[in-house]
Design a protein that fits this description.
Largest sheet: 3 strands, antiparallel
Radius of gyration: 25 Å
Number of strands: 5
Distance between the termini: 22 Å
Length: about 90
Amino acid sequence: MKTIDEMIAVMERARKGAQIQARVRNGGDWFSIPYPAWDWDTQDYRVEPVTKTMDIFLATHYSVTDAILNGECRDEETAFHTKKVTITWDE
């Protein structure tokens, strides 16, 4: 069973619009519930996990000779190679 502080934290997040999930106490799959009954004796509640994604572009500097040979640069003094990296985490 959650502590009173944990229960309050979930209910405050619900008040602010977070999606709440519930499951039968001590097992079962989590399911979304739009209007929780807050029956902490028979159900567990949590804020639905949200997966966040961020794209990051990494740039590396390399010689203009390499850029010309690769057809990526003609008369620039410097060349950059970029790579997109996607980072995902649960909040």
